[in-house]
Amino acid sequence: MSPEVQKKSKKSRSEKQGRKRASAKRASAKRASAKKASAKKASARTEGALVLDDLLASSTVVVVVGPGGVGKTTMAAAMAARAASVHGRRCLVVTVDPARRLAEAMGIAELREEPVLVPLPPDRGGKSSGRLWALMVDMAQSWDRLVDRHAPDEETKEALLTNRLYQTLTRRFAQSHDYIALDHLVDLVEEDEYELIIIDTPPSVHAMDVLDAPDRMIEFFGSRLLRWLTAPYRSKLVMVTAKPFLAVAERLLGGEFLAEVTEFFWRFSSLQPDFVRRANVVKARMQDPSTHYVIVRTLEDGPAAQAAMLDAELGHRGHRPSLWLSNRVVSTASSSKTAKLDPKLTQALAELEDQSLAQAQTRLEFPVDSAPEMEVAWRPGSVADIGALQDLLS
Description:
This protein has helices at 3-39, 41-58, 72-85, 102-106, 139-150, 154-161, 164-172, 177-191, 204-221, 224-229, 236-253, 255-269, 272-287, 301-316, 336-341, 343-365, 386-392; strands at residues 61-65, 90-95, 116-118, 131-136, 196-200, 291-298, 323-329, 373-377. The chain is α/β, with parallel strands linked by helices.
């Protein structure tokens, strides 16, 4: 081999060794970051657990928010179960999530407008110290109750309740659900039947809709759209201004249906004074110091990023979370000797290790600094009974 070839071969080996050293250094740094994050787990979980128990023992209202698919409904149910069984409270968990997963998580057949008493396993003394109820707000019934409360007279109430547009909006239009859910919450708090009410909200974007619902209701009653829709019942000046809009609407909807639409909104506008006052009461309830917010996330890039955005949006609205729940956290405590004996176990442990490292990296990229954090360990299978719910946060 010529000296020049030997020189090139030596240089190639040197470059390969350099790349290996760099790769090993990066892997070492990644492991060090993961270990550093893991070192904080015990103290973070302890602090988060203390905050959780303080919330469940002393709060009046807890609003649970988070991205979709992070187990938020299950966390809300687990919190309610712990409040009742550990802290002896009379607790109600409410869902406004149209997927209706809460009944399955609570281990009961179905949720209804009226609170359903959930049987709790007895404690070591043979008794359950607290009581737990669950319900899902029935939007149609709640709207009917609002109309009955705010209608200025019997004629207006009957005209609204029998209007086809009203029935469609209250039963099928999802965006009408947000305000109703919060109004229902205020009723439940005022009834003073429960010491703690936990609200399970829809995923993050819709959770913001819930928080903004009182302001949107107030804005609707002062909107140009409402003035145009009720123009035939108002002054000639308003009618002239709205005429181009009504002409287009009549071509699209037909004269008969447009007349029904305008009548509905005219009747509905008569509820404005009471509705606006009530919306301000609802808004005050959501801003009350006794109302606390808990953000649920998983340690994956997408959900963690969405949860961070949700945290920022809460801040813009004058709210600050009291606690973060990081759900489905993977732990990799294992035996290397056992892994060597079973190739399948070795592969499974390696996959868990990779997932744990990825979660640690996500934690570094999306740190939590607005409130304490509690980790909830990943568990195989689904949670389908109250006992499993109680174990989740223990």
